[in-house]
UniProtKB/TrEMBL annotation:
It comes from the Bacteria. The keyword Transport does not apply. Belongs to the thymidylate kinase family. InterPro entries: P-loop_NTPase, Thymidylate_kin-like_dom, Thymidylate_kinase. This is Thymidylate kinase. It catalyses: dTMP + ATP = dTDP + ADP. The gene is tmk.
C-alpha cells in the first residue's frame, strides 16, 4: 500500500478502553498491509516531565499539583520532548497511533477549571502546544466514550489487578471525569485540531470500519 503517514490519536476519559482499542486498531491496520507505530502520553519512566506529572497526580508536588496551568505545562513539555521521536515514527510508518495527546490537556484542564472549550484555557493550550512548541497536528482524533461509571469500574479493576497501577487523583474524582467527558464531546463537535470520530465504547467497536476511516 501507499504510505499515508497519518497521526491518529485515541482520546477518552480514564478507563474508556483506549489502550485496548489502539491494540485492536493496530492489528486491523497491519492486516491491511499498513506499517504502524504506537505511542502514549504521558511517557512515564521515559521523560522527567512525565514522571513529575505522575508525582503531581499522586499528591507529591504540593501546590504545583493543584495548579491546572502548572500541570498542563508538564504534560506539554513531555510531548515537546517526545516530538522528535514522534516525527521519526511518522516518517517510518504509514500510521502512528497515540493514546492521549494535546486534546487531553484541553479536556482535563478545562474540566478542572469548569470552563467551556471555547474558554481561555483551551485557547492557551493550543497556543502553547501547537503554536509555541510546534507539535505535529493529528490527522484524526478518535473519541472513545463510555459511561463514567463503567470507566471508574475499569480503573478500580486495574488498581486491584496491576501492582503498579494505583488510581491517581484524576481517576478517583468522579465529578471531574463527568466534566471531562463533556469537554471531550465539545472538542469533537468543534473538530478541534482535526476531524474527530466518536465511538460508543459501551458497544462492540467496528474496527474494520475504523480502519477504513483511518486509511481514507
Amino acid at each position: 500500500m501507499t504510505a499515508v503517514s497519518r497521526l491518529i490519536v485515541i482520546e477518552g476519559i480514564d478507563g474508556a478502553g483506549k489502550r485496548t482499542l489502539a491494540d485492536r486498531l493496530r492489528t486491523g491496520l497491519a492486516a491491511r498491509g499498513a506499517s504502524v507505530g504506537m505511542g502514549a502520553f504521558p511517557r512515564y519512566d521515559q521523560d522527567v516531565h512525565a514522571d513529575l506529572v505522575r508525582d503531581g497526580l499522586h499528591g507529591k508536588l504540593g501546590p504545583l499539583g493543584d495548579s491546572v496551568y502548572g500541570m498542563a505545562v508538564l504534560y506539554a513539555l513531555d510531548r515537546r520532548a517526545g516530538a522528535v521521536e514522534l516525527r521519526a515514527a511518522l516518517r517510518a510508518n504509514d500510521v502512528v497511533l497515540i493514546d492521549r495527546y494535546i486534546a487531553s490537556n484541553a479536556a482535563y484542564g478545562s474540566a478542572r477549571l469548569h470552563e467551556p472549550v471555547d474558554g481561555e484555557f483551551v485557547t492557551w493550550v493550543h497556543d502553547l502546544e501547537v503554536d509555541r512548541f510546534g507539535l505535529p497536528r493529528p490527522d484524526l482524533q478518535v473519541l472513545l466514550s463510555v459511561p463514567t461509571e463503567t470507566a471508574a469500574a475499569r480503573a478500580v479493576h486495574r488498581e486491584n489487578t496491576e501492582a503498579d497501577r494505583q488510581r491517581d487523583l484524576f481517576e478517583s474524582d468522579g465529578g471531574l471525569q463527568d466534566r471531562c467527558a463533556a469537554r471531550y464531546a465539545e472538542l469533537a463537535a468543534a473538530s478541534w485540531l482535526s476531524p474527530w470520530v466518536s465511538l460508543d465504547g459501551a458497544l462492540p467497536v467496528d474496527v474494520d470500519g475504523l480502519v477504513d476511516v483511518v486509511l481514507s
